[in-house]
Amino acid sequence: MTGTSELIDTLVACAAPVKRLRPPFVRAALWLGGACLLLAVVAIGHGVRTDVAERLHEPFFVTSVAAAVVTAISGRSGGVRD
């Protein structure tokens, strides 16, 4: 059985350099851009609602759409951290 310090030494000796991740703002922007592109493709495929101009005058509709957008952007803010 090996000790903890021996295990750490073995892991350090075998460790390889890792590639740095892009900055969080860039990763978030790329993710949101991809999501917007996907939504655009779906909207083109299914067509835009004919009553969207009328619905944008309803406060409840605008509030619910804004809440959905904020939820999508914020992601899993209360979840377990990576």
Q: Which descriptor suits the 3D outline?
A: elongated
Series of secondary-structure elements, N-terminal to C-terminal: HHHH
The share of residues in helices is 55-70%
Largest sheet: none
Number of strand elements:
0
The fraction of residues assigned to DSSP E strands is under 5%
* N-C termini distance: 31 Å
SSE-based structural type: mainly alpha
- Rg calc: 23 Å
- The overall pLDDT, averaged over residues, is 84
Number of H/I helices: 4
Low-confidence stretches: none
What would your notes on this structure say?
There is one protein chain. The chain is an all-alpha fold and 82 residues long. It has a domain at 23-74. Helices cover 66% and strands 0% of the residues. It has helices at 4-14, 24-46, 52-55, 59-74. The longest helix is centred in the middle third of the chain and has 23 residues, at 24-46. It is elongated and about 70 Å long. It starts with a helix and ends in an 8-residue tail after the last helix. The model has no long low-confidence stretch (mean pLDDT 84).
Task: Supply database-style keywords.
elongated; 82 residues; 66% helix; 4 helices; mainly alpha
Summarize the structure.
This protein has a domain of 52 residues. It has 82 residues and is mostly helical.
